[in-house]
Amino acid sequence: MRARPDTEVLVVGAGPAGLLLACELALAGVRTAVVDKRVRAHRESRALNLHPRSLELLDLRGLADRFLAAGRTVPGWQFAAPLKRPLDFTVLDTRHPYALLLAQSRTEELLARRAEELGVPIRRGHEAVALRQDPDGVEADVDGPDGRVTLRAAYAVGCDGGRSAVRQAAGIGFPGTDESMTAVVGDFATADHDDNERARRHGVLVARLEAGLTRYVVMDPLRLRVPSTEPVTLEEFRTSLRRACGTDCGVGRPRWLSRFGNTTRLAETYRRGRILLAGDAAHIHFPVGAQGLNTGLQDAMNLGWKLAAAVRGWAPPGLLDTYHGERHAVGRAVTTLTRAQTLLVELPLTPAYGESATLLCELFDALLGIGDANRHLAGRLSALDTVYPSGDPAAHPLTGARMPDIGLTTGQGAWYVHDFLRDGRFVLLHLDGEGDGDGHGHRTAGPVRTVRAEQYEEHPALDGATEVLIRPDGHVAWATRTTGSRPRAAERARALAAWTDASGRDGAGPHP
Ligand SMILES: Cc1cc2nc3c(=O)[nH]c(=O)nc-3n(C[C@H](O)[C@H](O)[C@H](O)COP(=O)(O)OP(=O)(O)OC[C@H]3O[C@@H](n4cnc5c(N)ncnc54)[C@H](O)[C@@H]3O)c2cc1C
User: Which of 264, 346, 358, 457 gives a 20 to 30 Å CA spacing to 163?
Assistant: First the structure.
């Protein structure tokens, strides 16, 4: 074995979280390598959707069109399977007010292609088996087709799923609740549409993944306590389908059969020294509301630019720790919400609750018909309502929220504000002609692009803002209503120093 300091960041796991993280790091000029123990990319798909915030994040980098072209949009998503009324995303304030039906395998394929375009090596058939860290970096023992190599990197990120070897090597606990209920999923080459409708009416999830491939998810009251480790047979699947809806929908030739459960866990920290976690390595839960993959993509967008700043030396002290501060809170909110959603799924299947469970679901359905209730839950499920608290009570209300994609005009034409985030820099947006930009246009210095523009669409969230500093992940770092150029310059200087210190410290903190 020998140490090879051949990469700045080692990403363990080429699932959706690892691939998007690698893209973000490479975009920021960080040498990044991805290892994945699987020899080939996954063919089967656990997830089948992208929610609005994930689509927005892809759009920030100019990638949404590739994904939209590969899938099919639907106007909303089910909050919990027994409810009759899906959440309505069309009312959300976004250019992507829908969910995209897209098999996880396609999402991974598109992300892997982007990573390759950015020059990231993805080494498949390479399993990280041990990790050690010291004050200057991380060493990983990786077993590959040519034996074991030791890779050295400044940082390592575990994007290696719920059983994360990286999390275990870093000694990070994964507390939560054990599995108490399971469901079965099957992907079949079938097109029995009449029976599919009937199955849907009886609470079976039926979704067309691609031409000639349909997904069924069944929760059989008599098989709810079967452990997820027990394999599913075609006969069991057919029997459960028949029990659920009186027909087996003619399913045959399964491409994939699996059993999954409601184990819910959240890593006690998303960072220990130079080792970080993202995606399922940091949080797992029942896939109700389809939030796991989406939350992992949002972790990756939050972490990518912060880690790049630490590696490149422009991270102010503590910046990298805000990854845990911001995303752990989101992980807690998602795992809490899914536990409540799971109960809505479980109660109607539990004989003891019988009619009471039906009444509860009817009540929920009625509530979802109220605009504000729909908006609240759709905001949470879509992740558009994610706000990273600034801790400053005097901060502009937009601080920490996602920047709405307002229309702008500059000397160079009409834009949406998200268009300026393509290359992963901060955007300093002057909205009233003040500031140090060169006319109504934009210029770039280091990690910040300055844009002087006029708003051609009023947006209530801007609430009189004259200047906004937008982070590379599209959240607002700082905003002000100040109009005088001197006081504003002082405020701006403080904000820029807080977010983009060029002193070269990385805020890595003490190592264990
Ligand atoms: C039935 C089901 C349906 C779901 N539906 C949805 C949905 O509709 N929407 C949604 O958002 N989420 C859904 N999810 C959850 C979603 O699939 C996961 O949240 C998502 O796959 C997590 O992505 P990830 O990149 O964090 O990890 P993973 O996709 O698990 O990828 C981890 C990768 O790490 C690799 N790896 C593991 N250990 C090592 C190691 N030691 N060395 C190297 N490589 C390693 C693995 O081979 C794998 O490729 C569903 C889950 C299930 C079970």
Answer: 346
